[in-house]
Amino acid sequence: MKIVIIDGQGGKLGAKLTESISTAVPGAEIVAVGTNTTATERMLKAGAEKAATGENAVKVACRTADIIMGPIGIVIADALMGEITPKMAQYVGESAAQRVLVPMNLCDTYVAGTLRSSAEIVQDAVNHVRALAERTKQ
Question: Is 25 within 8 Å of 129 (Cβ atoms)?
């Protein structure tokens, strides 16, 4: 199972997802894609097996991903303070992969219903990916 984790800015969320998925879904291939080198490096340090940076990396990774994870902004053009290009959002949206998006009330986007703490939201996303991974093993 190939899990692509996309993040930008400082890569903090991507690193937390990478770390958590490594534990929750042993054997999964985790590919980190950063919108900048800082985010990419942080996800690599958190345990991603492979990593790349930029718009073309998003395009290539989304082609073969089983699951794509990241902040909700990865499907919104110009999100993450402009780091998500319209093409990046398109590649994520057009991918045949399952998408597990972490709601974030940032960058002029309010996501209703995000009353839980960020740790609870990340754990919910990880639990969902674990369930998806278990279903594909059957």
Answer: yes
Write down the architecture of domain 2-137 according to CATH: 3-Layer(aba) Sandwich (3.40)
CB-based contacts of 58, cutoff 8 Å, min separation 6: 6, 33, 35, 87, 88, 91, 92
Is the pTM here over 0.85, yes or no? yes
- Reduce the DSSP state of residue 28 to 3 states and report it: coil
pLDDT tier at 107, thresholds 50, 70, 90: low
Q: Which residue has the tokens 């990046």?
A: 88
How do strand 50-53 and strand 2-7 relate by DSSP bridges?
unpaired
Residue spans of beta strands (DSSP E) within 15-125: 29-34, 50-53, 67-71, 98-102
Domain residue ranges of the chain, discontinuous segments joined by +: 2-137
pLDDT tens per residue across span 73-106:
999 999 999 999 999 999 999 999 999 999 876 6
**Residue 88, phi then psi, degrees to nearest 5:** -60, -50
